[in-house]
């Protein structure tokens, strides 16, 4: 699927209220949420979506935004090692634009490089089984980059 994209955007997120982060995969989408004070990020759930069918995935994400009662959304942007944008980052931008249109909420993109590698390292250190890692790694990765967003939000609040 080609992704027709507009100008790259990343909204300012509100400094209070829950945030939802999204780690987009082809068949699994990891979600994490913050607490309302934007202090701690926690893995929330993993959505199983049909491969190469972004419409049902987008519908599931819009539903998740409503269920988690969030004030803003962060979409992980999987940039390449040199910082350039490849097809996965273009897909993330496409989802971010659609989520912004469909929810009316601010949506920010966040560089998620190495979050899945770090999530796997943490889960291996916790002796998580292969099956548990497969089911949960995307949510853990989403919580890792959401925690980075929360730290940036804290710096915005305190100047």
Give me a quick take on this structure:
The protein is of the alpha/beta class and 159 residues long.
Please tell me about this protein's structure:
The chain has 159 residues and is of the alpha/beta class. Helices cover 45% and strands 19% of the residues. It contains four helices and five strands. It has a five-stranded mixed sheet with strand order 3-2-1-4-5, sandwiched between helices. β1 (19-23) and β2 form a beta hairpin. The N and C termini lie far apart (42 Å).
Topology:
Layout: E1 19-23, E2 28-34, E3 41-48, H1 54-68, E4 72-77, H2 87-103, E5 107-111, H3 115-125, H4 130-158
Parallel strand pairs: 1-4, 4-5
Antiparallel strand pairs: 1-2, 2-3
Helix pairs in contact: 1-2, 3-4
Radius of gyration: 15 Å
Using DSSP, what is the number of strands?
A: 5
Give the count of helical stretches.
4
* Helical percentage: 40-55%
Q: Helix and strand string, N-terminal first?
A: EEEHEHEHH
Strand content: 15-25%
Measured between the Cα atoms of the first and last residue, the distance is 42 Å
Shape: globular
**Main β-sheet, in a few words?**
5 strands, mixed
The spatial strand order of the largest sheet comes to 3-2-1-4-5
* Low-confidence spans: none
SSE-based structural type: alpha/beta
Give average pLDDT, whole number.
Answer: 92
Note the quaternary state here.
single chain
């Amino acid at each position: 699927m080609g992704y027709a994209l507009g100008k790259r955007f990343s909204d300012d997120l509100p400094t209070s209220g829950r945030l939802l982060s999204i780690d987009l995969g082809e068949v699994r989408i990891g979600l994490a949420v913050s607490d309302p004070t934007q202090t701690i990020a926690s893995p929330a759930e993993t959505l199983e979506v049909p491969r190469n069918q972004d419409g049902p995935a987008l519908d599931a994400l819009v539903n998740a935004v409503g269920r988690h009662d969030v004030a803003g959304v962060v979409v992980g942007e999987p940039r390449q090692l040199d910082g350039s944008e490849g097809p996965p980052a273009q897909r993330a931008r496409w989802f971010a634009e659609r989520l912004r249109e469909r929810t009316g909420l601010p949506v920010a993109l966040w560089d998620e490089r190495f979050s899945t590698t770090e999530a796997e390292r943490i889960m291996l250190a916790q002796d998580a089984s292969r099956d548990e890692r497969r089911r949960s790694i995307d949510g853990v990765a989403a919580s890792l980059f959401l925690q980075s967003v929360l730290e940036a939000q804290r710096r915005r609040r305190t100047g």
